Amino acid sequence: MLMEALCLDILNSTWRGYRGGEREQDRLLTPGWDEQLMKRWGIQALSPLEPEAREVLQTLRSAMSHVIEAIEKGTDPAEQDLETINTALALMPSTPFLAREENQYVLSYHPLQVDWRWFVREVAFSFTQLLIQHDPLRLKRCQNPACGWSFYDESRHKNRQWCNQTCATLMRVRRFRLHHRSLSSEQFTP
Ligand SMILES: [Zn+2]
Description:
The protein has six helices and six strands, in the order αββαααββαββα. The strands form three sheets. Strands 1-2 form a two-stranded antiparallel ribbon. Strands 3-4 form a two-stranded antiparallel ribbon. It has one domain (about 5-190): Orthogonal Bundle (Jann2411-like fold), CATH 1.10.3300. It has helices at about 5-10, 35-40, 50-75, 80-90, 115-135, 165-190; strands at about 15, 25, 95-100, 105-110, 140, 150. α3 (about 50-75) packs across α4 (about 80-90), α3 (about 50-75) packs parallel to α5 (about 115-135) and α4 (about 80-90) crosses α5 (about 115-135).
């Protein structure tokens, strides 16, 4: 099972196919995708999203992706990227609200107003939660160069390299072929 998070859905909203060579599609610009996403995460916002909201989400998506890149490199994130995330978090003020759900206490947040800014805030908040409540070192990008999707590695040894089984199989087959080719070229080298 892969960990699911709203921020991961936004991070993985560009699609280049698994094999590379395909034109990149931006699902943030695909009509209806945003509405499906909000429905999936139970977020009420004005939909479809305004062009302004899509632009803000694209900027937030880049900033979150840069942070994951910094984690992979073991460096500090750029100030500018943290600023983008903080701006998104502050887009819509909210009030903390204590509730009891299914025998446990939960803290949720009620927005001052429900519109696209709340949705953007929820995306940034979801990323923040992954960073602070989970292990940031498990946030990775798929090693298939044609893919690059982000995922949260829940494997026991933190050694997962691929976003899903399709990428894993594809890359294993490629590695096998490459290995096989280098073996056979060794064989025929005089
Ligand atoms: Zn992948």
